């Protein structure tokens, strides 16, 4: 019996650790703004969040299937381990954002998005449109960029990666990130 109580308590603790704040989600849906809010693990499937202000928000492990975040402000936001397909981030500002292990491998639109100084380490970003995206200072170590389109060598030259970064073709290269 004691063992059952301990296991149940650990499960409840683990599930609450990844839970989002329902008030923050309601605020986002009603106002289109939720700076610094906690949306950890939230299901943001399908809402119209065009131009939303999510600066500094915790969106880790969130689900973004068919979500329109075009023009959104996501500066300094944490999207680590978030997932998405058919995600629209066209023109969004993700400067300084964390997208570590972000899994968005199906038909994403990152056209004109700003990823200045963003950490996209180990992100799965295949089948993504990159036309005009700013990758200045972006970290792409271990990222999967296979099957991307409209990505140029000039964009990659402003970012950095490592030997495990998967590029769209052998004709592309990426500078290695300098580590201390």
Could you describe the 3D structure shown?
- With 180 residues, the protein is of the alpha/beta class.
- The protein is built from three helices and four strands.
- The strands form two sheets. The protein has a two-stranded parallel sheet. Strands 3-4 form a two-stranded parallel sheet.
- It is globular, with a radius of gyration of 17 Å.
- The N terminus is likely disordered.
Task: Looking at this protein, list some descriptive labels.
alpha/beta, 180 residues
**How many separate domains?**
1
Shape: globular
Q: Strands across the major sheet, in which order?
A: 1-2
Poorly predicted runs of 5 or more residues: 1-17
- Binned, the helix content reads 10-25%
* Beta-strand content estimate: 5-15%
Secondary-structure class: alpha/beta
Average per-residue pLDDT, rounded, comes to: 89
Give a summary of the structure in a few sentences:
With 180 residues, this protein is of the alpha/beta class. The protein has helices at 2-17, 22-31, 153-157; strands at 83-85, 103-106, 108-109, 128-129.
């Amino acid at each position: 019996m004691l063992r059952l109580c301990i296991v149940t308590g650990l499960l409840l603790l683990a599930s609450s650790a990844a839970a989002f704040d329902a008030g923050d989600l309601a605020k986002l849906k009603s106002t289109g703004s939720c700076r610094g809010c906690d949306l950890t693990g939230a299901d943001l499937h399908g809402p119209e969040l065009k131009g939303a202000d999510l600066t500094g928000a915790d969106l880790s492990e969130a689900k973004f299937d068919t979500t329109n975040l075009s023009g959104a402000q996501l500066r300094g936001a944490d999207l680590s381990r978030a997932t998405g397909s058919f995600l629209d981030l066209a023109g969004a500002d993700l400067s300084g954002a964390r997208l570590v292990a972000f899994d968005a491998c199906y038909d994403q639109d990152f056209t004109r998005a700003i990823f200045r100084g963003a950490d996209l380490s180990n992100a799965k970003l295949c089948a993504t449109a990159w036309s005009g995206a700013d990758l200045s200072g972006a970290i792409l170590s271990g990222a999967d960029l296979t099957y991307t389109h409209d990505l140029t060598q000039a964009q990659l030259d402003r970012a950095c990666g490592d030997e495990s970064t998967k590029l769209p073709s052998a004709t592309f290269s990426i500078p290695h990130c300098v580590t201390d």
